[in-house]
Design goal:
Helix content: 55-70%
Number of strands: 5
Oligomer: single chain
Structural class: mainly alpha
Largest sheet: 5 strands, parallel
Low-confidence stretches: 865-874
Number of helices: 50
InterPro entries: AAA_16, P-loop_NTPase, Sig_transdc_resp-reg_C-effctor, Tscrpt_reg_LuxR_C, WH-like_DNA-bd_sf
Distance between the termini: 53 Å
Keywords: ATP-binding, Nucleotide-binding
Shape: elongated
GO molecular function: adenylate cyclase activity; ATP binding; DNA binding
Mean pLDDT: 85
Organism: Streptomyces malaysiensis subsp. samsunensis
Pfam family, one: AAA_16
Radius of gyration: 40 Å
């Protein structure tokens, strides 16, 4: 498939017509590697098919340069092929012995230096063999890769092109840019003899689209085609290599795969480029290697020094690289394609690469470049003699951490640890820095490096401070080895009351970690609450260490409900007022404050603090991202915004898949609460089939899974089984001391299940017990829910009075979903009419805003007038409407994706957004709603 070469073909055709009339010529096809010179040359014989033109062709190759007269033999073999034996013999006898020596297998003639040569009379003899052939029909002589032609053949070609008169011949040779060797007079003669130089241009975007169509059998997306065109810069070889690589990887010519086209580095192309580079002079290869090593820091002076070239040699080598088609331009000093870099690196030995990177590091350091640029060079070196290397790597790691790149920082620090001169506290500090970088994405490595550092530290305070670099687990149990380590360093340090200054702060933070580690032990929880009470009603909270300890003690008071909700809220907000939002807080117990505010139904003011935390957080390890998403999910759930909470919780669970120890439990617990609020059976099944049951034995995970198992049983009518599961869970929570009615609201469920299985006495007892606990705790959401649950067991006016009280209490709550539930129950108990309809309309608006489709369905069923049947307006985007319409036609997500030319993941996102906006639970309800959307 030859595209956009009509101009060149026309010029060759014109030359052939002139040759037929007796005017011979030489044409030179030039251009960089991969531009399509050979493909064009192979197409030229088609011009001779309609005319009586004889074609002679030869292909030169680097491996055959020592094969004397190889190209001449190819040309004359094609001339003699098919000729009768007698005619063949007569032609060979034309110049008897000398001419015969060119074609026989005997040793060729040698000149004084021992180089194969061809006598003058043989030059004439070979030309004379062409004369009778050209008299019969014009000749088209094709020689591919003139730069590789063996010297005797090149001598004859140079002789021939000066004596074309009377032969009726067109000689077309290809010559790759960068191979016009000034010291080769024969090649110079061939170039000078060319009447015309033809340079095929890079392919246009339109031609690129045609090649894509040929490769994939379907037209390519516009964005995909542009990506392929940009990355190949119109070079046919680059383009076809990229497309072949994409096809082998299963990519399709769609917009979603455009980035893959930009980033692909085809191995086949790399090998072609490497082969071309190996044939270049040493200065050219040295300069290419210097550009590859310096990358974005490539500057003429630095490149010249690294490659060991003087200014004249540098300019010559630079020009040569550009002519080869490897550089974008002589000014930009960047490679045309990523594969060029790969080719250069593959052509160097390990020792050569290390030597160049080490030298580059020294150059950059001595001219004062930033530490990260120097460190990037040191990363490629296993050992270095530079005395400043370790400090540069540490400075680079510090910079990387500040910009939110802990993995990069860890790479710098691991490289620094290879320096054999480090020992004692110097090595310990480096290990601690490395552990600090790793704690957000590799906690096991963090713990290992802290354990290695501690024996190298000389004081108890330093050892304790190092141990605190290990991040605590917010919910769930940490590895026993971490607990043992914390106990050991705390013992060495001593109690906080006996210490002052920095040592006291370290001791307080250690106490916080150790007390939190006992959050599943009733005795430890009780002791923590007593310790909190001993701090007084207004703890100082002056230092961050005091705030960390208070957060842990407050969490014990929350779990046990031993403090009233308003007291918890006041103290938690005081902590946040004094604790600026920073990205590092996820590595401390401070996120426990969020759980306390959720339990206290006091989350309205925390959103701004979380927003500040997100602004200061930089993209680091996914465990950090998971915890931040969990916090948002918890706060949104506490406000009843379950559809939005689900998005954050599901994102947190996905991020925690590879960081289970730090975020797996807490993210699953957050998603569990959302699933229960939504009564989403599919999501519940997904949680039960997830890794939680197998990977955690913590009480938080166990109780969460028991809750969703009970919900699944209740959904399927297995009420007795659901009740047994809930009661067992409740007994376990009570025995542990976890009695908070907001965080562990198992009694309201058990009450309803007792009623369903026909045990009203047990239901009433549990409802009364829940109301008592709710009053003691004092959070509006707990009290309002308890009143609603008790009213469900009653009839008539007493039930209505309790429901009105529940609604009044919940209007002070942040949880709009609980208010909607109380309003629904009240509307069902009121007589049909004005007040009931008004109450149900308010409930419908709240439920829809919260994204609770099943509750919306209940409201529709409760309101016989149908006034609340339509959810509040939720404008869909044009794309969401299109997706919804295609779903309404019965198409699957994959079919919709194929129809729109996007990924299935994109379709899922659009549908999830549509469900949330319309207040529906899934595909079926969306399809039912479509007719009203279109009306």
């Amino acid at each position: 498939m030859l595209l956009e070469r009509e101009t060149e073909l026309a010029q060759v055709a014109e030359a052939l017509r002139a040759a037929a009339e007796g005017s011979s010529s030489v044409l030179l096809l030039t251009g960089p590697l991969g531009v399509g010179r050979t493909a064009l040359l192979h197409q030229l014989p088609t011009l001779a098919e309609s005319e009586k033109i004889r074609v002679l062709r030869a292909n030169a190759a680097p491996m055959e340069q020592d094969f004397a007269f190889g190209v001449v033999r190819q040309l004359f073999d094609s001339l003699l092929t098919g000729a009768p034996e007698e005619a063949r013999g007569r032609r060979l006898e034309a110049d008897d012995d000398v001419c015969r020596a060119v074609f026989c297998d005997d040793a060729p003639l040698l000149d004084e230096s021992g180089t194969p040569t061809i006598p003058e009379q043989a030059l004439y003899g070979l030309r004379s063999m062409l004369a009778p052939v050209s008299a019969e029909s014009p000749l088209l002589i094709l020689v591919d890769d003139l730069q590789w032609v063996d010297t005797p053949s090149l001598r004859w070609l140079a002789f021939l092109v000066k004596r074309l008169h009377g032969l009726r011949a067109v000689v077309v040779c290809t010559l790759r840019d960068g191979y016009r060797r000034p010291g080769d007079p024969l090649l110079r003669e061939m170039v000078d003899a060319a009447r015309r130089e033809l340079r095929p241009a890079p392919l246009s975007l339109g031609a690129t689209k045609e090649v894509i169509h040929e490769q994939f059998g379907v037209p390519g997306d516009e964005e995909f085609a542009r990506a392929c065109h940009e990355t190949s810069v119109g070079n046919p070889l680059f383009l076809k290599s990229v497309l072949a690589g994409l096809a082998m990887s299963g990519h399709r010519p769609i917009a979603e795969h455009a980035e893959a086209a930009r980033s692909l580095r085809p191995a086949q192309l790399r090998e072609r480029l490497a082969s071309s580079l190996r044939a270049q002079p040493r200065p050219v290869r040295d300069l290419a290697a210097a550009i590859a090593v310096l990358g974005d820091q490539a500057e003429p002076d630095l490149l010249g020094r690294l490659a060991g070239l003087d200014p004249i040699g540098f300019q010559a080598a630079l020009r040569h690289l550009h002519q080869l088609g490897l550089l974008a331009s002589e000014q930009e000093l960047r490679f045309l394609h990523r594969a060029v870099q790969d080719a250069i690196e593959s052509s160097m030995t390990v020792a050569e690469r290390e030597r160049l990177h080490d030298a580059a590091a020294g150059l950059l350091y001595h001219i004062g470049r930033p530490a990260e640029l120097v460190a990037a060079q040191l990363l490629a070196v296993t050992g270095s003699d530079h005395p400043w290397a370790v400090e540069v790597l540490r400075a680079a790691a510090d910079t990387a951490l500040r910009r939110g790149a802990p993995r990069t920082a860890a790479r710098y620090l691991r490289r620094a640890l290879l320096d054999g001169s480090l020992s004692g506290e110097g090595r310990a500090r480096l290990l601690i820095d490395l552990a600090t970088a790793e704690r957000g994405f590799d906690p096991a490595a963090c713990e290992r490096h802290i354990s290695q550092a501690i024996p190298l530290l000389t004081t108890a305070r330093l050892r304790a401070a190092a141990a605190l670099r290990i991040s605590p687990t917010i919910v769930g149990l940490g590895p026993p080895s971490v607990g043992d380590l914390l106990h050991q360093v705390a013992e060495d340090l001593g109690p906080a009351d006996s210490l002052e200054g920095a040592a006291r702060d370290v001791a307080l933070r250690l106490e916080a970690r150790l007390r939190h580690a006992g959050h599943e032990d009733p005795a430890e929880l009780a002791a923590a609450v007593e310790r909190l009470s001993a701090l007084g009603e207004e703890p100082a909270l002056i230092t961050s260490a005091e705030r960390e300890l208070t957060s842990v003690l407050l969490n014990a008071a929350v779990l046990t409900a031993r403090w009233p909700a308003d007291g918890v809220s006041r103290l938690a907000n005081r902590i946040l007022e004094r604790e600026p939002a920073t990205s590092g807080q996820v590595h401390t117990p401070l996120p426990l404050v969020v759980i306390g505010l959720v339990a206290a139904d006091s989350v309205r003011g925390i959103s701004s603090w979380l927003a500040m935390e997100q602004q200061t957080r930089r993209q680091g390890g996914t465990a950090v991202d998971a915890l931040v998403n969990v916090q948002q999910a918890m706060v949104l759930s506490a406000r009843g915004r379950v559809a939005q909470a689900r998005e954050y919780a599901e994102r947190a669970v996905r991020l925690a898949e590879v960081h289970w120890q730090e975020a797996g439990v807490v993210s699953t617990v957050a998603l569990t609460r959302v699933a229960l609020d939504l009564q989403d059976s599919v999501l519940i099944e997904r949680i039960l089939d997830g890794p939680g049951r197998r990977r955690s034995s913590s009480l938080a995970m166990t109780s969460a899974l028991q809750f969703v198992k009970a919900a699944q049983d209740a959904e399927n009518g297995r009420w007795t089984s659901a009740l047994e599961t809930l009661l067992a869970c409740g007994r376990q929570l009570e025995a542990t001391g976890w009695r908070n009615p907001v965080l562990f609201s198992w009694r309201p469920w058990a009450t309803d299940l007792h009623r369903r299985v026909g045990d009203p006495c047990a239901a009433a007892a549990l409802a009364e017990e829940e109301l008592l606990r709710a009053k003691e705790w004092g959070a509006p959401v707990a009290l309002g829910r308890a009143l609603r649950v008790k009213a469900r067991l009653m009839e008539g006016d007493p039930a209505v009075r309790l429901l009105r009280e529940s609604v009044d209490v919940l209007r002070a709550s942040a949880n709009e979903l609980e208010l909607a539930r109380a309003l629904v129950q009240l509307g069902q108990r009121l007589r049909p009419g004005g007040e009931a309809a008004s109450v149900l309309r308010e409930a419908a608006a709240l439920a829809s805003a919260c994204g609770a489709p099943r509750l919306v369905e209940r409201i529709r069923a409760a309101d016989g007038s149908g006034a609340s049947a339509a959810a509040p307006e939720a404008a869909l985007t044009r794309t969401e409407r299109t997706v919804a319409s295609l779903v309404g036609r019965g198409l699957t997500n994959q079919e919709v994706a194929a129809e729109l030319g996007v990924s299935s993941r994109a379709i899922e996102k659009h549908l999830t957004s549509s469900y949330r906006k319309l207040g529906v639970s899934g595909r079926r309800e969306l399809i039912e709603l479509l007719p009203r959307m279109d009306s």
